[in-house]
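worker-3 :: picked Phosphatidyl synthase
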Amino acid sequence: MSLDNSITTEGNPSCRRLSNVSASRADLFGGPNVLVPPKHLMASSDAAEIAMEMEMAKQHLEDESSSAEASPRAGSPVTTPLIPASTTTTDEFALAFDIDGVLIRGGQPIPAAIDALKYINGANPYGIKVPYIFVTNGGGKTEEERCIDLSRQLELEVSPGQFICGHTPMREMAAKYNTVLVVGGEGEKCRVVAEGYGFKDVVTPGDIIKTRHDTTPFRKLTEEEYRNSRVRDFSKIQIEAVFVFADSRDWAGDQQIILDVLMSKNGRLDERSETFDEGPPIFFSHNDVVWSTSHEHSRIGMGAFELTTIAFGKPQLGTFEFATRLLRQWRKDTHSIDKPPQTVYFVGDTPESDIRGTNEFNEISEATWFSILVKTGVYQEGTIPRYPPKKTCETVLDAVKFAIDRELTQKPTPSGNGAVRN
Ligand SMILES: [Mg+2]
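worker-3 :: tokens ->
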């Protein structure tokens, strides 16, 4: 049995998922707090602002890519997208890709990935381009930084305007909470991400440890961590929410600090709740129990944090709503397509997040969301996925070929191949 089939939070009585619409105060503040994305994440009013920010990031990315002094990456220049002049762009369907275990594994591209992206950028028998986005639960650095990495790995320009990671939707929580504890990732990166999202006062575990070193008896800050961390007067600070942006690099220490905050009275570290139910809410960027790396066996992710379950990322429907808005904006900005796609093919390697989310979102979405499972990541051949995909393919190249063939040969449209001139 594969690991991903044997470990699941489903049915675990310690894990509850609540809707912020139906949850009572007792639900929210009684025991471990579990929130799904708030209703406003579904609203379209923020889309333009997000798109604008992403376009600015995209422009920044382009500037950096085109600069002869893009020094850290000068040895690996970003290649020009493969867009033959005669290519047409379909407005009928779109693609969405998970990254780890589908396109990248252990920091290296999966061999079929580069060909798959060439294929959907016009190098296919139909001469069409298919708009696409990336939806990963990974995170821990800015979207812009991750896109530069991806561009280099995949030999193709990837824009922040077509990219969602686990914590991307958390940017919409910045207006709601003033002082927040941000956990996970390397060094100061997640503080930088959170501040970039607009969070006004970001506390890290490093700040708490530097201020009071006996908080975590077995964790000592490195010199760099000590230098970057900030001594704070926590008697005057109220932590209003906890955000786990990326996998912790020190689970023991971070769990201790998260517990201290959750068991505090109103997020004040020097005041413990007598009933342990007065702490702030906690949001996770995803709840993947396992994920695919260069190791031959799947590695555990933050979903194995038994503390609670999560708020964002796949399979949460709010993330798919966010993806829908991003895809709409991306198609409009880059392909001048001002209508929603009829079908979105989602290619992923994890039944519990990619396939489950796609299938469940398909039930409520106007567009058809079609799940494709690939065998290059978490899913292991021979096992029966708990959440069955509509289609299983060996690799991402097989997946995109299947999707395009299905659209252009099996689903003829009145306009022929359903493609428009770009
Ligand atoms: Mg994956």
